């Protein structure tokens, strides 16, 4: 019920189309209902038998039928065209809402959900929605008019014969209701299985270079086969339900004809019904059976559509964890003082704390370096500043303002991040650099590329800045990609900078080049550097050693060496 109520809300913008669609649907069924009546009046005239009477009746009947069928055809055009478009628009609205919502969901959501399922929800789950959105109410309406209408005529023609038919219809409704509940679960399961297939496919394709380099195609094939087979198993349960539903309903229809013939014959034999009325009966049952068939198909369409809609709701009803506070203010005119006060953090409630009581201060324009074993929480410390996650204890301030009291957009606009993994979007080099500032002019882009030491390389390409980088930048080397990502940050020109092992994945030669660009980038910005090579951070204003969820040592390079602790030990080893 909850699902249906939510679903109905999506009709709101299309009310006029929706109601007019129903009016057209009603006209279509009224014309069908009228035909036997016209036939009846014609047969009456026929039985009356005078040729002149018959001929004079033909003209008005022709006119009436022609008018009726023209109206019916026009209505059908509206229903098939505008009705379908209404469904397609609703589907578009939902897809837009889902996409917008995906963009808002926090990192923690993406930690727990895989992108294959998410894609499946956006693409295939919403696919059946428009069909149901449009045909659902319309078919229901047409069918109800036809069923109720023909039943009224059946009762008028002979109420005795109508009674057992009514009993059969009631039985059929109970049967359908019961079957429907079973079908719903199987359709939902189908959706999940398709989502699994999407996930598998996406995982394999994203990692295809790893797959081929390990020659592990067999393993991937096996995993994919499993998802594919599971889908078949799920379909099997689904079609079994549908089979018994469809065949059950067909059997009920047969029983209606049987009852009509046998009981009708019995009534005629006992003089309780006229033979001509039995023929009328058969006509009206024809009108009455077809909407039942439509309702049966509608049930399938509804379960398909609604199961997709339910999966859609699962997402849009998940609130993003990190949102603007109601009284959030813009962060403007940033100096760049950063302060962590007693910051504690754990990723989820049942995980052990990753950070406890971490405190440090970076005056505007100064730099600190974080060092420590892998997994000690360095990246985590950095993720808290742009609020990819919120601290679970303590506060983080920029210019003395708690980051949770600032708007997310203005906060993130002030922070530039260069990471080990560079993500380049499918597109040209120019577009990828401009990602740092979409309004940038070509001069600004070139300027940024020069500062990142990548301009000469770009110029050497046949298409220059318009060269296509391929999906995820597959056509560039690691160092080139990294320099493009540095150009992006130059263009963004943020007062606060995070360099998270920006050179770790590079060879010595590229590293030296990039180190130069990074130093230039860091000049006059508040910078947090995580480096795997200690030589690159010697000049930091302060070095923090992260170990055991805490800052174990802090000071300048020489002070830490003199201390003879963890840092000194690292330094000796490197
Ligand atoms: P570092 O950057 O120092 O290598 P991280 O900050 O990446 O370390 O990780 C610190 C700890 O937090 C590790 O134990 C890691 O397993 C855990 N961790 C990191 N990211 C997540 C996440 N998204 N969800 C849950 N745990 C995480
Ligand atoms: Mg890290």
UniProtKB/TrEMBL annotation:
Keywords for this protein: ATP-binding, Membrane, Nucleotide-binding, Transmembrane, Transmembrane helix
GO molecular function, one term: ATP binding
GO cellular component, one term: plasma membrane
Residues annotated as domain ABC transmembrane type-1: 22-304
Residues passing through the membrane, by range: 17-35, 55-79, 147-175, 250-269, 281-301
InterPro entries attached to this UniProt entry: AAA+_ATPase, ABC1_TM_dom, ABC1_TM_sf, ABC_transporter-like_ATP-bd, ABC_transporter-like_CS, P-loop_NTPase, Type_1_exporter
SMART domains the UniProt entry points to: AAA (SM00382)
Gene3D superfamilies reported for this sequence: ABC transporter type 1, transmembrane domain (1.20.1560.10), P-loop containing nucleotide triphosphate hydrolases (3.40.50.300)
Topology term for the membrane: Multi-pass membrane protein
Subcellular location: Cell membrane
Organism phylogeny: Bacteria, Bacillati, Bacillota, Clostridia, Lachnospirales
Pfam families, per database record: ABC_membrane, ABC_tran
ABC transporter domain residues: 338-573
Record's protein name: ABC transporter ATP-binding protein/permease
């Amino acid at each position: 019920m909850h699902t249906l109520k939510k679903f109905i809300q999506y009709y709101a913008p299309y009310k006029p189309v929706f109601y007019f669609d129903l009016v057209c649907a009603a006209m279509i069924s009224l014309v069908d209902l009228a035909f036997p009546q016209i036939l009846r009046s014609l047969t009456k005239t026929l039985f009356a038998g005078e040729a002149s009477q018959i001929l004079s009746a033909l003209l008005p009947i022709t006119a009436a039928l022609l008018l009726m069928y023209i109206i019916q055809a026009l209505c059908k055009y509206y229903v098939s065209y505008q009705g379908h478009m209404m469904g397609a628009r609703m589907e578009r609205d939902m897809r837009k809402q889902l996409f917008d919502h995906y963009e808002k969901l926090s990192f923690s959501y993406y930690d727990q959900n895989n992108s294959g399922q998410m894609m499946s929800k956006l693409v295939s789950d919403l696919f059946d929605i428009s069909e149901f959105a449009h045909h659902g109410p319309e078919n229901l309406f047409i069918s109800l008019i036809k069923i109720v209408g023909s039943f009224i005529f059946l009762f008028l023609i002979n109420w005795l014969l109508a009674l057992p038919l009514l009993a059969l219809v009631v039985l059929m409704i109970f049967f359908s209701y019961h079957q429907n509940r079973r079908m719903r679960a199987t359709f939902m399961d189908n959706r999940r299985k398709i989502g699994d297939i999407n996930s598998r496919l996406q995982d394999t394709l994203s990692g295809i270079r790893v797959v081929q380099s390990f020659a592990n195609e067999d393993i991937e094939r096996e995993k994919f086969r499993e998802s594919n087979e599971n889908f078949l198993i799920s379909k099997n349960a689904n079609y079994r339900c549908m089979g018994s539903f469809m065949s059950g309903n067909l059997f009920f229809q047969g029983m209606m004809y049987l009852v009509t013939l046998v009981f009708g014959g019995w009534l005629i034999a006992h003089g309780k019904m006229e033979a001509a009325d039995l023929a009328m009966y058969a006509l009206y049952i024809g009108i009455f059976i077809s909407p039942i068939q439509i309702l049966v198909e509608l049930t399938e369409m509804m379960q398909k559509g609604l199961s997709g809609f339910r999966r859609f709701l699962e997402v849009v009803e998940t609130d993003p964890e990190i949102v603007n506070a109601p009284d959030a203010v813009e962060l403007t005119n940033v100096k760049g003082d950063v302060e962590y006060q007693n910051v504690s953090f754990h990723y989820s409630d049942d995980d052990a704390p990753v950070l406890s009581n971490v405190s440090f201060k970076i005056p505007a324009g100064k730099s600190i370096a974080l060092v420590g074993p892998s997994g000690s929480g360095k990246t985590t410390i950095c993720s808290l500043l742009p609020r990819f996650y919120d601290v679970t204890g303590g506060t983080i301030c920029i210019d003395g303002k708690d980051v949770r009291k600032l708007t997310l957009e203005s906060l993130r606009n002030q922070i530039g991040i260069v990471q080990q993994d560079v993500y380049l979007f499918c597109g040209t080099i120019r577009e990828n650099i401009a990602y740092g500032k979409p309004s940038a002019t070509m001069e600004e882009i070139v300027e940024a590329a020069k500062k990142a030491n990548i301009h000469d390389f770009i110029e050497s390409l046949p298409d220059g800045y318009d060269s296509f980088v391929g999906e995820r930048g597959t056509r560039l080397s690691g160092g080139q990609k990294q320099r493009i990502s540095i150009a992006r940050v130059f263009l963004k020109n943020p007062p606060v900078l995070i360099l998270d092992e920006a050179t770790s994945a590079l060879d010595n030669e590229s590293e030296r080049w990039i180190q130069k660009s990074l130093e230039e980038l860091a000049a006059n910005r508040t910078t947090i550097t995580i480096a795997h090579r200690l030589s690159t951070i010697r000049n930091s204003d302060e070095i923090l050693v992260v170990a055991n969820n805490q800052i174990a040592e802090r000071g300048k390079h020489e002070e830490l060496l003199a201390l003879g602790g963890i840092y000194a030990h690292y330094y000796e080893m490197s």
